[in-house]
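User: Predict the complex with alpha-L-arabinofuranose.
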Amino acid sequence: MLSATLALDPAFRIAEVNARIFGSFVEHLGRCVHTGIHEPGHPRADKDGLRLDVLDLVRELGVTTVRYPGGSFVSGFRWEDSVGPVAERPTRLDLAWHSSEPNTFGLHEFMTWTAKAGVEPMMAVNLGTRGVAEAVDLMEYCNHPQGTALSDRRITNGAKEPFGIRMWCLGNEMDGPWQTGHKTADEYGRLAAETARAMRMFGPGLELVACGSSARDMPTFGSWEATVLEHTYDQVDLISCHAYYEEKDGDLAGFLASAVDMDNFIDAVVATADHVRAKVRGRKRIDISFDEWNVWYMSKAEDSRPRDGWPVAARIIEDEYDVADAVVVGGLLISLLRHSDRVTAACMAQLVNAIAPIRTEPGGPAWRQTTFHPFAQAARHAKGTVLRTEVTAPSHETSAYGEVTAVDAVATHDEDNRSLTVLAVNRHPGEPVALGLGLRCFPGYELVEHSVLYDDDIRATNTLHRPDRVVPRRQASTGPVDGEQLTALLPPISWNVLRLRRAAA
Ligand code: AHR
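Assistant: Here is the predicted structure with alpha-L-arabinofuranose placed in the model:
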């Protein structure tokens, strides 16, 4: 059997766990909104048409921040269409997803939903077909207390109190030729800087995100970030990264090691942002909002886009996730946490139905995909300080990344609650690994639970008819702590959560 070790020390601090790492994303895409979070007439819908079964799962998932309303959708969106009496709202074509948008769920409905879900909104403005004026109008509508045409319109539409939205994305994926209103880095950088400057005139407290690259393999990657930040450095707080992973060309081992790419992506954007900081003599540091990440079988996406007509709420990119996908999602969460000093916001894309951890049937139930579990467990148990871990593990070959270690891991230490959590994946496609946790620096810590998500059939999924086929289970063979070491068996292609605690003195 392969064996690996993990060295842990409470002094090896990276940063505090930022709750915003556990963000998600609701776009008007397929059935994310319509028959996803919103379905008037559903047996479990409340008086606002919000599905309570989905709200329960969103809370269980532990989502903290939700980006809205897109995505590519936002680059053709007119926010004014989505407010006021529902019967008077226009239906519009959504060019991004070749769909019709009835606007029966809009800004106010989203804000009501965020309050019920207990999440923070992260609002995106349209810098594709629109510009500074519409962005500041939306800001005034949302955040100005009263006494102006737009703030009073919000009050007439039912929201007496301002929404108080702090986080704003300045457009979406403007580097992508598929994006409505796609721009060069100079064009976008100027527009983002001017939009940000105008938005900041409302007052302090805003956190603004500039669009970075929509993937690391974009031809403009690197130079896009540098140019955009040269225009916007003093005006924005964060720059975005987007990344989707899928198994390509039968390279399962490479797919399981997708976090290697995420690590490299983050490191490159940090280096670029810091380079621009030196160049423009920037006082502050620019952090990263990894506001779209997930497994997405994108090679199938073209097929799932409606070809005939402009349907409402079509079944678009409803990927069904298996065990291997869940292990990759776990690895990506480990990468994000490992970079907590610079990645201060992140959104798993998306929340319901479209490339999502939660699935629903119209008029029917909602259930957890395999990928729900690593996210929910990390959001619940990764608390306190993120610790740098030293993994020593055998490595194996992948087509995508060359040699990678069989085990990847991160740890968090909640000093106040005397708890230590280790999140670990065994990304070896065929071999179990005996992982020894070195606990010399954590005297008195005992195992609470080793939970493992694993299945003999790595293609097993959760479906409407078998919603709990794949769930995390207790690994009974682990423990107790022996001297200064805990040994845990990580099955091949598995996601593991090891929780330890020291009793109160
Ligand atoms: O999340 C799905 C899509 O992926 C988003 O609309 C877009 O921003 C990205 O290309």
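The pocket of alpha-L-arabinofuranose is lined by residues 27, 29, 70-72, 172-173, 214, 292, 349-350 (CB under 6 Å).
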